[in-house]
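User: Structure please.
Assistant: Input sequence and predicted structure:
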Amino acid sequence: VQLQESGPGLVQPGGSLRLSCAASGFTFSMYYMTWYRQAPGKERELVAGISPVRGITNYADSVKGRFIISRDNALNTMDLQMNSLKPEDTAVYYCHCPGRGYWGQGTQVTVSS
């Protein structure tokens, strides 16, 4: 079983970045999927989630209107499009399957001028 994030980067405030999560070893299309993040010195927090079939999405208030979560069940992938990035979005971002307890290894996103 594997969740593999990709798309780390350094971006200036106001910029955009797209993260991807590739899933393997389980039936991805059956499970609710989420993105979490953890900033230095802070607890890990839920960023966004997406339902398995209808693709119903939920977002933390801090990212609502700026981030877009999506998934492709045929490719077993989930993406997070991050727009209008702010320095406070700097964190390690994790792909997570709550129903199976799987976590990716995390990918660093740094928003800085």
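The mean pLDDT is 96.
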